[in-house]
Amino acid sequence: MRALIMATALLLGDQALAAPSQAQVDSGRRLFARCAGCHDTGPGARNGFGPQLNAVVGRKAGSAAGYAYSPALKASSLVWSEQNLVAFIRDSEKVVPGNKMRFLSFMSEKQAADIVAYLRVHGVAAPPPRR
What we know:
globular
């Protein structure tokens, strides 16, 4: 995992993310069980009721191949940062009105952040090329 985090930091340069603690990742893994009915992660992850979430951090919202996103999410200019993922997990309708996700989280900000830490273990999207 440390190698993955270091590679991510090199790819992101000045946008590098602070490495989550193993306790935070473990907590996020347990909490992700609430998400696993709709979302998949890891090798061989596939879209289900929701899109697969490998390399979601840094990815443009509504861009995972093969998933039928809501028009609202596809039309958004959102790129999934850790902060807006946490906000989306906590209240998806507030972040992107009209999206398809209907999860009443009742999660604290810390719990949502732990899930995002767990998702980071499954990769971070490469930044767009600089021009």
